[in-house]
Structures are given as structure tokens and as C-alpha cells.
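Example 3.2
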Amino acid sequence: MEQMAGTIQAWVALYGFRVIGAVAILVIGYLAAKAIRSLIRRILEKNHVDEMLISFTTSVTYVAILAFVIIAALGKLGVQTASFVVVVGAAGLAIGLALQGSLANFAAGVLMVIFKPFKVGDYIEAAGTAGTVEDIGIFTTGLKSPDNKRIIVPNAKLTSDNITNYSAKSQRRVDLVASVSYGDDLDKVRKTLEEILSADDRVLSDPAFTVAVLSLSDSSVDFAVRPWVQSGDYWGVLFDLQEQIKKRFDAEGISIPFPQQDIYLHKAD
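Structure, written as C-alpha cells:
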């Protein structure tokens, strides 16, 4: 009996402090994991991040910290954790390879949250498509095309190429090219175009619009017509100016060269 008591006393003396240390690591690590999770949630909520992305990010962070804490506690008890770490690492590598596409999309989503190249409601062009941003998820971003189609784009594709954000600036320039015949009076053409622009209240005075000879083509003289407008007025001004230029040219006897040409050269965006 005395021998057993001595063995227990020796065991307690040997492992007691280790157990206390391991428990302390578990408790402190658990509290730290909860605090870090709450901190990350507050930061993401402050930046108006999608709730799904917030939940996923905080959960992954919390589990990763707890795994590290458990390994540290086992090490404090004297358990050989090297092989355990290797197994976990190998499993993580296998999972990572299997989900590399999803992980790339997730990483891209995190980068978009950090750098904010666009926000919900912006009209963007990226990944070979264009539309208004409806939502930014963990792995994908939802767009609404101008003809009201729902477009789902993987986040990795959005960040792997150029992103054009048409809503980032409050003002945009409308680029038109008005073509007239060589026989037309260029001063009259310029004055007519300037009157059309000045009559439109949506055309800004600052920055001032530009009307100038752009090029001398084979069968026409091409005028650059470049007014500045508020971003929300862009399409309305673009469409209306085309109509007004055609009507005024007809009324003023200014000819559009034959064969019929578009009065503007513009890539739709």
C-alpha cells in the first residue's frame, strides 16, 4: 500500500505540473480563440462584408486556433505530436489539392474584401462579362447584366484579370465620332455640334466638352465629340446625342457620307 502511495505521489510530482500547464493552455487558448473570432467578426461587419463570408472566415479561424492549442496542450503533457502534425499536414495537403479551385476562389474573395475593387451596386466589366454587382459571396460574385440576366462569376476569375469599374467615379466622358463629308463647312459643323452639347442640361460645363477634328478618313472628316456627364446620365446622353446629331445634320444640310456610317464609334460597356 505504501509502495502504491509512493508511486502515485511520484506520478503526481512528475505529471501534475504538466497537467496543470496543459489545462492552462487549453483554457487560455480557448478564450483567445473566441476573442480573435469576435474581433474578426467586428472588423468584417464594420466593412459591410457579406454575412456568409463573415461566418466562414470566423469559423475557419476559430477551428485553426483551437487545433493549434490542442497540439500545444498535448505537447505540454509529453505526447509526441510530431507524427500527429505530419498526419494533419498530409490530410490538409490532400484536402487542399482536392479543393484548390474552391480555395483559390475563397482567397480571391478575401482579397476583394480587403482591397474593395468594387461594391454591391457597381457596374463592372471583368472576366469576359459585364453587369451590376448584386452580391459578393465566399466563392462567387453575382452580377446582373443590362438585359436582366443573372451571371455567377468565380471570384478567382474576377481577380485574375483587369477589372473595369464604371461606377467608381461620379463623372464619365461620352466618346462620339461624328463623320461629315469633305464638302461640308467644318466651322459650321463644329458650331452645330457645340450648340447640341450646350443645349443638353446633362452635359457638364466642368470639365468642358471637346469638339475637334479627330481624323481625315478616306471618305469623311471625323469629329471627336466628347462631353462629360454624371455617371448615371451616361447612357441617356449617349443615345440622345446620336439622335440629336442626326436630326440637326439633316436640318442644317450637313451630309453624312455614303455608304452610311455610324455617327459614332463606341464600344458598348
